[in-house]
Amino acid sequence: MSTGYMQLLRTRHAARLLAGTLLGRLPNATAALAIVLFTRAEGGSYTLAGILSAVYGVGTAVGQPLLGRAVDLWGQPRVMLPAAILSGLGMALYAAVGLEPLPVAYAAMVIAGVFTPPLEGGLRALWPSVVGRGEKVHAAYALDAVAQELMFALGPLFLTLLVGAWSEAAALLVINAAGVLGALSVVISGPSRRWRSEPREAHWLGALRSKGLLVLLGTFFFVGLALGSIAVAAVAYGTEEHNDAAASYLLSALGFGALIGGLTYGARQWAGRAEKRLLLLIGCLAVGYLPLALTPGVAAMTVLAAVSGVFLAPALACSFVVVDRVAPTGTVTEAFSWLVTTFGVGAAVGTGVAGPAVETGGAPGGFLVAGAGGIAALAVLLAAVPVLMRPVGTAGPGVLPENDRIGAVEPGFTTGHQA
Fold it and tell me: Where does it reside (predicted)?
């Protein structure tokens, strides 16, 4: 796999697009922790921090499909750069006004969330024109995923360093300025300026007419809920342990665990139905979240966080294969956007629920929300196995046949957070 990664990086535009997308997504990758830290520094409660983070998450979830459709209509540069600037200005407004007046803080979160540019979906749309199709596209997804795991692992540490060197407000400004620069690097590139969306059949439901996709959306809503609650619970755990860096340790360990799992999963090809494998991976993911509620010492808790993340990247990677199978013809980009949206809504709900859970039950209460989210994700998947295992092309009357662009053997690849 490493040899294939190096070959891809030597492809013209590949390294620049990957680096620009990762830098552009840094604000989104650190937003949950950054909002909680800044809100607490301003004297706000965990409940308020969770609500503000949830507002940002819901805004992102709403904005992604809308901005994605705008990109399809008008191209990447006209949409992504203005969106990145507006999102950055929203966070700058929050850093400037703090919690007073509170309605302005809420408005800032809405602006920052809704205008988060759809860089991840945009990069996936660009890969075929940059590296070609077939095996190289799957290898590009793998490279993208491994790099994203590093970003999600190192992002919280970078944020903590900025807070320690300056302040929570300065960290918000620096992170979001970097996001604008990343988006700028992507949209002025040749592939981004030349890219145009392929025509697709108009349908008011679009990708949502696939029952298989709806099953995946329900499953990963609860996976997102689990992850969103962990961000709030981790900060509460650090406070209880009188260790300000503990939250970044846990979130970084979660990211490194996902990186290890993703590299292992992507090191081989997988035969058989991806749907069956997804069921097993979600089950392992659910089991991995439960021990976090034990909240042992920082060292042991960091190990538990890493273990809980091991099955995250493989589960997401496998879900991408299933999405590619079940999305109606011409709606694959939209289907991925809905996955991002649902994941984001779940994470936002998780942060909102974890706040009151922490207020009443401390850090263990917050981590119990994560465990419940994992179990709920598994329950959805188990309940809908007949729908998900339906052969391709049997979507039912009035629904276009689903696609199978993966084939009998699935090239191993991994993916990162937020889909």
Answer: Cell membrane
